[in-house]
Amino acid sequence: MNTHISRSIRRFFGKNKELLLYLFFGGLSFLFNLSAFIFFNKLLRTGVLVANILSWFLTVLFVFLTNRKYVFAYNKTLTRSSLWRQALRFYAGRAATLLIEEVLLFVFIIKLGCSSLLVKAITQIVVIILNYIISKIWIFSDNTIKHPFD
């Protein structure tokens, strides 16, 4: 029975490796982002939106490198300019989700007075899902669709 369970677990991880790695590194980035947000907002007393942008900047580089290498296993050798274009697409995708997050934070924290930590945590879940879709389809795919930054 243990062998059957072990095989089932290996099969599950084999089939879902990319998504599980994304969730793992997404979880790490979530914790890092939330910690940076708390640092800037609560300890340094910066405004909610500024704290969010600063925590975003600190998180994006980590996410780009881990997503590229581990999650999407994008091991394709790129020229320096191609790597910069890929990084630019990555940052553009992340900037789009940052804008969505900023709007949600503004509406729910500043306008409606909801708990900043609760809203930040919930918006991070939305952002992680959107970032996965953007990365999978637009940044780390080898499809033949012409990207706007190419």
Report the principal-axis shape: globular
Helix content: over 70%
Tally of helical segments:
5
Largest sheet: none
- DSSP summary, beta strand count: 0
Q: H/E series, N to C?
A: HHHHH
Helix-and-strand structural type: mainly alpha
How many angstroms does the end-to-end distance come to? 52 Å
The whole-number mean of residue pLDDT values reads: 84
Low-confidence spans = 144-150
Q: Could you say how many structural domains there are in total?
A: 1
- Specify Rg, calculated over alpha carbons: 18 Å
Note the beta-strand portion. under 5%
Q: In a few lines, what is going on in this structure?
A:
The chain has 150 residues and is mainly alpha-helical. The protein contains five helices and no strands.
Written description of the protein model:
- This protein is mainly alpha-helical and 150 residues long.
- The chain has one domain (17-139).
- The protein is built from 5 helices and no strands.
- Helix 2 crosses helix 5 and helix 3 runs antiparallel to helix 4 (80-111).
- It is globular, with a radius of gyration of 18 Å.
- The termini are far apart.
- Residues 144-150 have low confidence and may be disordered.
Summarize this structure as a short list of keywords or feature phrases.
globular; 5 helices; 81% helix; mainly alpha; disordered C terminus; 150 residues
